[in-house]
Design brief:
Strand 8 (about 180-185) and strand 9 form a beta hairpin. The chain has helices spanning about 30-45, 65-75, 90-110, 115-130, 140-145, 215-220, 310-315, 325-330, 335-350, 410-425, 475-490; strands at about 10-15, 20-25, 55, 75-80, 130-135, 140, 160-165, 180-185, 195, 200-205, 210, 230-235, 265, 285, 355-360, 365, 370-375, 380-390, 440-450, 460-470. The strands form seven sheets. Strands 10-9-8-7-11 form a five-stranded antiparallel sheet. It has a four-stranded mixed sheet with strand order 15-20-19-16. By secondary structure, the protein is an alpha+beta fold. It is built from eleven helices and 20 strands. The chain has three domains: about 1-135, Ribonuclease H-like superfamily/Ribonuclease H (Nucleotidyltransferase, domain 5); about 150-225 and about 240-245, no CATH class; about 320-425 and about 445-490, no CATH class. It comes from Striga hermonthica.
Length: about 500
């Protein structure tokens, strides 16, 4: 399927350091060399640095003599991947996949036909460059490349309806001052937008009003106008738009021609037979016809929600639960919170959860935190001050502090079966709760934790070596499940097949 501009391929170049992506559209693959030369000049002018290495697949468009000669002339090292080995081009392979995922979602949401795939690809790359990257610690690609923060206030929903202004020179006195268009992307800079004019069937640039809750289907609908006591044949002059296709709205990929870590090319789009058909026939309008117009976003003024003052927020926290150890010892119920923490430590020592040892060389100790909770009765009266020591499990590293963390839970199927048996056989049903359940799981890994805040023994090298699970550890649920399963199995119980 050809794009609106007549292209059948797209070519991507990716900077390996910033992951920024540039896209070019091709009619034939032999245009790759010309676009590479254009890209080469552009990036060197923009950065003031030299292009040193280009990595691509082993396609014929990259192995020509003129391509190799150009790289040798400018001192560019050209690395070609082994055929049918996409893992050598990991960055480019993943970027091409990400682009196509964006394209499919955008075109499906906007309900646009396949020829718009080129505009969707260009917009997807534009948005990717302004998005944070997980591989780069959530840094924005454009910020890494330019050193400046990109703006986002100009971003709009792809495929939404916009009304482009018609200048006085192009309209008559009674003509509409704006025409409905479809937003299909951004200009070369952030000062303009690209629109599809369904009446003239061309791409225009403008900067006008959007209606992001409307799509192309909303302006496809014929508009019928009532004329009293007249029944006449009226020719509907609404723009002829393409019929929506239910198939994938994007070109498919060819694994053997995808690009590499620094530079990638998307695959050819298979042309389809036949032309899009107009979907708006002439309409016979009678006196009973009614006007059908698309809904529009309300322009009613927004009333901001009430902002509470600092003194009002203090009412929520006064006499509440401390957020840290320092708040607990500064609280008016300091003695009760200290007693709650001591009770928690006594419980841990009785359970032999940890022992005080010297931190071995090369090992690190996880941090911990006190969590405070007020236990209240049905009337809202405080009946107990509760403190719990938890490990900051987010500091754990997979393969060092834990391996598996999955822990099964009972399914609703099993619960329904038990309840059904109890009801049908007139049995008694009891429910139990295991106090501090996670503290009963044995640990397989060697894990060290800093001493509880406020209860440290005077030594910098002394830490807690955990022998049993503690709340906050990633493997705590799994270890408790193992202990519970072993106990129930020793009593002759069997696990249900559903669980």
């Amino acid at each position: 399927v050809e794009s609106l501009g007549g292209s059948r391929y797209f070519l991507t170049f990716i900077d390996d350091a910033s992951r920024k992506v540039w896209v070019y559209f091709l009619n034939t693959k032999d245009q790759v060399f010309e676009y590479f030369k254009e890209f080469h000049v552009m990036v060197e002018r923009e950065t003031g640095m030299k292009l040193k290495c280009l990595r691509s697949d082993n396609g014929g468009e990259y192995t020509s003599k003129e391509f190799d000669a150009y790289c040798r002339t400018y001192g560019i090292r050209h690395e070609k991947s082994v055929p049918r080995t996409p893992q050598h081009n990991g960055v480019s392979e993943r970027m091409n996949r990400t682009i196509m995922e964006h394209v499919r979602s955008m075109m499906n949401m906007a309900k646009l036909p396949k020829p718009f795939w080129g505009e969707a690809v260009k917009t997807a790359c534009y948005l990717i460059n302004r998005s944070p990257s997980v591989q780069l610690n959530f840094e924005v690609l454009e910020r890494i490349w330019t050193g400046k923060d990109p703006t986002y206030s100009h971003l709009r929903v792809f495929g939404c309806v916009a009304y482009a202004h018609v200048s006085k020179e192009l309209r008559k006195k009674l003509d509409a001052r704006s025409i409905p268009c479809i937003f299909i992307g951004y200009g070369d800079e952030e000062f303009g937008y690209r629109f599809w004019d369904p009446r003239e069937k061309k791409v225009i640039r403008s900067r006008d009003v959007f209606q992001e809750n409307l799509t192309i289907e909303d302006i496809e609908k014929p508009k019928m106008f009532q004329k009293s006591n007249v029944g006449a044949q009226v020719s509907n002059e609404a723009p002829k738009l393409f019929r929506r296709n239910n198939e994938d709205d994007v070109p498919e990929e060819d694994e053997e021609t995808e690009e590499s870590a620094e530079q990638g090319e998307q695959q050819p789009i298979s042309p389809e037979q036949g032309e899009p058909q107009p979907i708006l026939p002439d309409t016979n309008v009678g006196s009973s016809s009614q006007m059908i117009l698309p809904t529009r976003r309300s322009e009613r003024g927004h009333i901001p929600s009430k902002r509470y003052s600092s003194s009002e927020y203090l009412l929520l926290t006064e006499d509440g639960e401390p957020e840290s150890f320092q708040e607990a010892i500064s609280h008016k119920d300091k003695e009760k919170w200290m007693a709650a923490m001591q009770e928690e430590l006594d419980s841990l020592q009785k359970n032999q959860t940890y022992e005080i040892v010297k931190l071995p060389e090369g090992k690190r100790a996880l941090k911990n935190k006190w969590v405070f909770k007020l236990k209240k009765d049905a009337n809202g009266q405080v009946v107990k001050h509760k403190a719990r020591l938890v490990v900051k499990g987010f500091q754990q590293k997979k393969g060092i502090d834990f391996d598996e963390i999955f822990a099964p839970v009972v399914k609703m199927t099993s619960i329904r079966v038990i309840l059904g048996l109890v009801a049908s056989m007139n049995l008694e049903l009891e429910q139990m709760d295991v106090k501090t359940a996670f503290l009963h799981g044995d640990l397989n890994e060697e894990i060290y934790m800093q001493q509880p805040e406020g209860f440290e023994i005077s030594s910098e090298n002394l830490v807690c070596k955990l022998s049993k699970s503690l709340y906050g550890l990633k493997q705590a649920p799994r270890q408790w499940n193992k202990t519970f399963y072993s106990c129930m199995k020793s009593q002759g119980y069997k696990k249900t097949t559903a669980d």
